[in-house]
Amino acid sequence: MTMNTQGRPTAPTSTSVSDIETVSGSRGLLQAEGLIFEIGTSETTGVDLPAPKNRTGRLGGVARKVPTGLPGLSEPEMVRHYMRLSQRNYAIDLGFFPLGSCTMKHNPRLNEKMARLPGFGDIHPMQPQATVQGALELIDELATWLKTLTNMPFVAMSPKAGAHGELAGMLAIRQALIARGEGETRKRVLVPASAHGTNPATAVQCGFEVDEIKANARGRVDMDMLRAKLERTDDVAGIMLTNPNTCGLFETDIKEIADLIHAAGGYFYCDGANFNAIVGRVRPGDLGVDAMHINLHKTFSTPHGGGGPGSGPTVLSQALAPYAPVPFVVKNEDGVYSLVEDMDGEASESFGRMVAFHGQMGMFVRALAYILSHGADGLKQVAEDAVLNANYIAAKLKHVMTPAFEGYCMHEALFSDAFTADGIETLDIAKALIDEGYHPMTMYFPLVVHGAMLIEPTETESKATLDQFCASLESIARRAAQGDETLKGAPYLAPARRLDETRAARKPVLKWTAPEGETVAAE
């Protein structure tokens, strides 16, 4: 008997929690909370300031002539409002996040402390280079680690996120083709169906044409189709391939793919968003990769949930290194670090500048702190544990759910909805997980799997945590297989019930409208 089950029940056990209604709208100690416009009034304010004396306005004819209509709250009301909103957020500090390192995994507090150190957290990108030697040295040291882990000779540190890193790699490829005099003839980029969706978008943005390659029954590149598409080689610019791919599988033919692309005169871009599955185990440079971005905010902590911060350094092969973007850090013979910012000298063949300054300094500090605290052997274990955890989930659930592909996976366990009864969908399973206290896994992606459920536990979760999650998902999966119609109404225990998602997508309410008679904000 646990502490939570000792003693006498304080309420009839036959009462359904979902049937209980409260006058306040709160559910236990989870407080109900309306919009700030609904709980505040435009006639009051939390702070009263006297009108300024002996000053005239300088706005002239554009000064506001009507009240703003913004809500006023007292200080306690304001604090409570945002505290209650924060309790609606699911966070990695609250529980297991099946979406994994794409969005949420454990972020060591040590990294945050390092990023806030004076000299890192308070520097300005326009300071003289002589005053930021430590920061430039840190960027250079991080670059050395990234080059060593990938066995690539150069890394562009300025890209701000994964897709930005893709753009850097593909612009370097385009510049290399221009330098060869083939910029106008080699326009075709091969993109597997199992690649990240940003890959074809980036190729098009760089002026290339996308030629899709289907996946085979193993969830990997269909080599017969690839060879067929390479029968004509004079227009091939390269390939954009995600490895491990979006199905959570390692492309076992990757070396042959690289050889075929190079023989056709093209370049090999590898999407490195899933590098956390192979870091310390596989060096992409050994596989024939010419360019690959690395999501620092995924492989080396500080996931980009909430929109930032991100960082996507792009490693380049010897063939593409001359075309890397500026700026980049160099160490001079006298030991002084400097930034190469102009397109002359060693940067004369660069495709140009991508950002105003030098990259995402906060992420550089966090990533290097993560790398140094793990060491080479620890980074290798990161990949091993990520793969182990994903395969553990796959093994625990394969008897009640349908694995999308046979065999072992890498860092993600992928299931289809084939096990569900008619009328039960992936969405119903995901919503039921909310009642169990978990944020849903990635749904309906990748598109090559019907009703896909993609689960990435990351390397940071314990066996006990995974067992608890699997027990919850197994229970839901059994109900789905039996056609339990109650799943269609889940979640029952969340502060808000299920929305009409089709209507919400097509007719979203994006603006609060005051009831008739109330003052509204000036437009």
| CATH class assignment of the largest domain | Alpha Beta
Number of strands: 13
CATH topology category name of the largest domain = Aspartate Aminotransferase, domain 2
CATH architectural name of the largest domain: 3-Layer(aba) Sandwich
Class from helix and strand fractions: alpha/beta
Total DSSP helices? 13
- Low-pLDDT regions: none
Task: Characterize the main sheet.
Answer: 7 strands, mixed
Distance between the termini: 61 Å
Number of domains: 2
Q: What is the overall pLDDT average?
A: 90
Note the beta-strand portion: 5-15%
Shape: globular
Helix content: 25-40%
Q: Write out the CATH superfamily name of the largest domain.
A: Type I PLP-dependent aspartate aminotransferase-like (Major domain)
What Rg, in angstroms, do the CA atoms define? 27 Å
Series of secondary-structure elements, N-terminal to C-terminal: HHHHEHEHEHEHEEHEEEHEEHEEHH
Strand order of the largest sheet: 1-7-6-5-4-2-3
